[in-house]
Amino acid sequence: MRYTKLLIPTVKETPADAVVVSHRLMLRAGFIRKLAAGIYTYLPLAQRTFTKVANIVREEMNRAGAQELLMPAVAPAELWQESGRWDQYGPELLRFKDRKGGDFIIGPTHEEVITALVRDEVKSYKQLPLNLYQIQTKFRDEVRPRFGLMRGREFTMKDAYSFHVDNADAHREYDNMYAAYCRIFARCGLRFRAVEADTGSIGGNRSHEFQVLADSGEDAIVFTVDDKGRPSYGANVELAPIARPERAPETPGQPACVVETPHKKTIDDVAKFLGLAHDRVLKAVLFLVDNNAVMAVCRGDRDVNEIKLKKALGAKQVRLLTDDEARRKGLVPGYAGPAALDAPEVTVVVDIGVQGLAGLVCGANKEGEHRVQVAEGRDFAVAIWGDLTTAQKGDRCGKNGDVYDAARGIEVGHVFFLGTKYSSAMKATFQGEDKVERLCVMGCYGIGVTRTAAAAIEQNHDDDGIRWPAPIAPFHVSLVALGNEAETMDLASKMEGAWEAQGIEVLFDDRDERPGVKFKDHDLIGCPVRVAVGGKSLKEGVVEVKLRTDTKEQTKKVPVAEAVAFVTGLVSGLLADAKRAADEAESRH
């Protein structure tokens, strides 16, 4: 493809609102243009990459036995009212009325639509299992759309939904999709981890996120590896289980007593005032849990995690108490603590990290006072223990006892076991072999196609631009003509034809521009292999080849007669590496 025939509006300056790397580089390299907040036009280079990601997804979904369909982007409110999400989903659901006054939404996800379809079309166990997927534009009306395609309002997603006769078969398909996702992201040339995650608004009781590892990632994850360095467990920090501490109980010292701590309400203020480390000060966080007041207690160097608290108490809803609500329950905001607590309506739940500690400080449940020399067991009894805090690097895993490492990640895929959440609400049943009507058991599986491309940039870039993994690069080869002399253009044209005949995609820069301008543009665009033809090198009988994916970026001079075969080998090797990584990822699963 000739550069002069493509719309590639590269720019030198970065727009002021572009904060993250992928947003900056996609704008500068001419991949996207903003139409409105969180809504972008995808220019030709971007569309080529998105198509490649989508094709990898499609091939692996088909390989795994799923069937592709396409559902409407617009859905009637009645379906969402059936499922209960019309009121639950919140302001991110874009709602509108048609000319007749009917309520509709633009789909952020399609559980309701697919469940209605299967409810109408599937009547017998003989038609199950069934896994249906689509690759489609979605819309979520984000309150603060930001970071370009990382957190946009309109985006392209693959969403799949499976239907089964029982839980066992649904879990089998969950594992099948998990393996397919490992192959997909490995084939995209990405470094990623699959981690346990909260099910959120989708529902269900089992889920994994697929996180592309990047320092700029929004999500914090922890993981363990086995003795061969292979991932053994991983989870989002909000969900990762922490093992009970392996330590002997501390011996209580002096009796607990109350000291004045005027205007010292925060952990930091109290620790500084008393000259103690943060882990010696107990943090008491006040919640309303299913309409009951709860005091969640942990060490001051940790944070109470609402997801874990909800799980520990088997609750449906959790939120922080307001100061006025706390006072009405007999609690003193900023000075609450588990020792000498006179508030019978308040349930106290304590994090396992507090177990066996002595010499602690906690709120004295009076304004301006704290209790010192507090010992767990002596000065307060614990009725409910729980793993309540957000996991950190160095914690021991509650699953296997190994020590967690930590990383930042960008969520690009998510698999859920839904059970009968939607089939029950929407009455999606089938007749079993015994003639008894049963609810379909469901799973759902999503991949952000456009987000995957943005995540690839976050993981693969340098100061000069993008370093695309070969499988999803807009072109495999940047062919740069250094001058427009007949000999240079003729040789470049022949190389372009030879590579394209072998299925290698070439961006042939035939512009009448200085070499420096061309090199900067091609580094910005980030095709895996750059070949420069012409100038002094051609007089020496060589072309210059640089592997953009190589962090050392050493330019190699290759004889003209060997150039086509040499570059073909480079590209083939890069693509083969990704397929080999996919096989290895699947085998590890």
Features:
589 residues; alpha+beta; BirA Bifunctional Protein, domain 2; YbaK protein; Rossmann fold; 9-stranded mixed sheet; 5-stranded mixed sheet
Q: Can you walk me through this structure?
A:
The chain is α+β, with helices and mostly antiparallel strands and 589 residues long. The chain has three domains: 31-241 and 405-459, Bira Bifunctional Protein, Domain 2 (BirA Bifunctional Protein, domain 2); 257-386, YbaK protein (Alpha-Beta Complex); 461-581, 3-Layer(aba) Sandwich (Rossmann fold), CATH 3.40.50.800. The protein is built from 15 helices and 31 strands. Strands 3, 7, 8, 9, 10, 11, 12, 21 and 24 form a nine-stranded mixed β-sheet that branches. Helix 2 runs antiparallel to helix 6. The protein is globular. It starts with 20 loop residues before the first helix and ends with a helix.
Biggest sheet layout: 9 strands, mixed
What does the radius of gyration come to?
Answer: 29 Å
Q: What is the highest CATH level, the class of the largest domain?
A: Alpha Beta
Query: What's the total number of strands?
Result: 31
Q: Indicate the percent of residues in helices.
A: 25-40%
Distance between the termini: 39 Å
CATH topology call of the largest domain: BirA Bifunctional Protein, domain 2
Architecture (CATH level 2) name of the largest domain: 2-Layer Sandwich
Shape: globular
User: Given the helix and strand composition, which structural class is it?
Assistant: alpha+beta
Q: Mean pLDDT, rounded to whole units? A: 94
| Range of strand content | 25-35%
Low-pLDDT regions:
none
Assembly context of the chains? single chain
Number of separate domains:
3
